[in-house]
Design a protein that fits this description.
The protein is built from no helices and 13 strands. It has 165 residues and is mainly β. It has a single domain, classed as Exo-inulinase, domain 1 (Jelly Rolls, Sandwich). The strands form 2 sheets. A 7-stranded antiparallel beta sheet has the order 1-2-13-4-9-10-11, with no helix packed on it. A hairpin with a 3-residue loop joins strand 5 and strand 6.
C-alpha cells in the first residue's frame, strides 16, 4: 500500500487483495459527527471507500464501506487482540444505483448522530439505522480505502469535511 499527497489530493494505492487502509484525524474526538468525502476511482472497477466515525482503538468504531459497483455496508468494527486484524459485525447493508460506477467521482456522507447512523451517496440518503447494540459514544473521524478481489486499487480523495450534523 502507498499513499501520497499531490496537488492537494490524497492518493491511495493498494496492490494486494483484501486489504484496508485507514487514516483518521487524531487532534479531536467526536460524538455526533458528519463526514463528507469526495473520491475518484482511478484504478480497477472493484474498490471500496470507507468512512469511519467514533474510532477508538480499544472499543471499536462504526465503518461505512461503499463499493464503487454500488454495494454498501454499515459495520461495527473492532481490532482483534493482536491489533493486526479486525472483526466486523454488519449493522446494515444494501445496494444503490446512485453510485457512479467505474472510473468516476462520487460524494459520500456518513453521519453518526446519537444512536442513528446514516449514509448518503451523491447527495441522497440511502440508509439510516439505529444502533442499540454497540452504542459507541465518541472517537476519531477518519477515512479509508479497501481492496477486494481485483487489484490494484487507486483512489484519489479530493476532499474530506468533518462537521456537526
Amino acid at each position: 500500500m502507498t499513499s501520497s499527497i499531490e496537488n492537494g489530493f490524497l492518493n491511495i494505492e493498494i496492490k494486494g487483495k483484501g486489504l484496508h487502509y485507514y487514516t483518521y484525524y487524531t487532534p479531536k474526538t467526536y460524538g455526533n459527527v458528519r463526514i463528507d468525502v469526495r473520491a475518484e476511482n482511478r484504478g480497477e472497477f472493484n474498490s471500496i471507500v470507507t468512512i469511519l466515525c467514533r474510532y477508538n482503538k480499544d472499543n471499536g468504531w462504526y465503518e461505512f464501506n461503499i463499493n464503487n459497483g454500488g454495494l454498501y455496508q454499515i459495520l461495527y468494527t473492532k481490532w482483534n487482540s493482536d491489533k493486526q486484524n479486525t472483526n466486523s459485525t454488519i449493522i446494515a447493508n444494501g445496494g444503490s444505483t446512485l453510485v457512479h460506477a467505474g472510473k468516476e467521482v462520487n460524494e459520500y456522507s456518513a453521519t453518526c448522530s446519537d444512536r442513528t447512523l446514516s449514509l448518503s451517496i451523491n447527495g441522497s440518503e440511502v440508509r439510516k439505522e439505529v444502533d442499540n447494540k454497540f452504542v459507541l459514544d465518541d472517537g476519531y473521524a477518519g477515512i479509508g480505502v479497501a481492496s477486494e478481489k481485483t487489484v490494484p486499487v487507486e483512489i484519489r480523495i479530493d476532499s474530506v469535511s468533518v462537521s456537526q450534523p
